[in-house]
Specification:
The model has no long low-confidence stretch (mean pLDDT 83). This protein has 14 helices and 21 strands.
Amino acid sequence: MLRFTRTKIALTLGTVLLGLILAVPSFFSKEERQAYLKAIPSWVPSWLVPQRAIVLGLDLQGGSHLLLEVDRADLIRTLSIQLRDDVRRTLREVGVNPTGGIQITPRGVQVRIADEAARAKALPKLRALSQPISNAILGESGGRTLDIVEGADGLIQFNFSDAGLTDRTRRAVDQAIEVVRRRIDPNGTVEPSIQRQGADRILVQIPGLQDPSEVKNNLNPAKLEFRLMGDAGSTDVEMLPSREAGGQRVPVERRIIVAGSELTDAQPGFDQRTNEPIVNFRFTLKGAQAFAEATTQNVGRPLAIVLDGEVISAPRILQPITGGQGQISGRFTVEEVNRLSVQLRSGALPAKLTIVEARTVGPGLGRDSIDAGIKATLYAAIFVVVYMFWTYGVFGFIANIALLVHVGLIFGLMSMLEATLTLPGIAGIVLTIGTAVDSNVLIYERIREEARAGRSVVSAIQAGFDRAFATIIDSNSTMAIAALILFFMGSGPVRGFAVVFVLGILTTVITAVTMTRMMIALWYSWARPKTIPF
């Protein structure tokens, strides 16, 4: 029946009003939104105040565009160092001493165990270091991470397999994406677009940032390690440059006591005695226990604080450090301390990132794009409004009201999701205007056919909505499937277009079927027409 209860009317109008309210913040600048939020009394619940807004993409407001690539050679070196430590730990567990130490090779590590009995004892444990390659979707693929080869005179080589390196590269990219996000946007206010591109590249787009060098500085590796100073000539020692010694190389043990990944927090500060900039840090429980154990067993020895392969400080351990916190000093400037704090808080990059491409997109192009998009939307809306009103009269006027609500709901949903609006997204909005009107045309033409068949006004309207509903759902479902394929298989602007188009399809069904039907029902109960008014 062509009747709407008060509850249905209230729910429909409430949904529309909520969507329009959510869209409001997107029509103001960030500064205006912040000033508005500060003016709201503290007793007002935050969930009552819409705060989210649409993010303009790089093509609309300009910004920085960077293409990063994982340095494969650096990744292999990092993995080889980890593998060397694993081999050393395994040999210690089985009580086997290698002949001549463990050497890093271009593809992994090698170790020589001359004694046949010791080699037979260690090999089963060493072979366990080669893990099967698997993922969450396909399970185990049959490949393994390491190729273990036995040579002459007890030589054992551990080489990373091609499949293993591919898998580690994929994981490194996934990890690097999160680290880059935390470094670029530590407070969650920059709203960058960071996504994988290909097997070993990351595309970074930061709307509004006109100086890519700021991003480059934050992407520099900040690899922090706590080690012990060693004796020159020892097999487990490497020579590293020392900042305190003016760049001269000093012996540092290869064994890492605690890595920077064990930090829970790092904040800039000033030394109370010297007033020099420092970084205050805190360890995780695991890191604090390892640090406490090492400092307890090595009282009196110098502790090397190694940052990016350089000894920045080597204080002597005067007493066990069991509190799980400390400070890093090393003749830093205030800017260096702030940057280092962000880098340490965000974690270490799994490998060095090489900047393949870096460019700045000016805001002028974005302004022109916005103006052109607004004009296209207005022209499309005006032609559609005139056509609908001219063709369907009162019903066309109702469809036009629903069309305006349709566009408003799209902005409301995009604001709620904090979706990024790009130039293709604007094209998507223009396209959804046509699809929204198409649904109304299907309904109205069906009503016209039912009226010509001799039905009464109420019966024709009811039948028109009922019989057009299945067609509307089918047509919008096929478009939604195409849009979802674009979203999952596309990237960048293509995904932006798909998001807007899917939201437009959703609001089309709401406005064309529910809202239009409600308005026509209210109009009929008020006007009581004898014939269809078109």
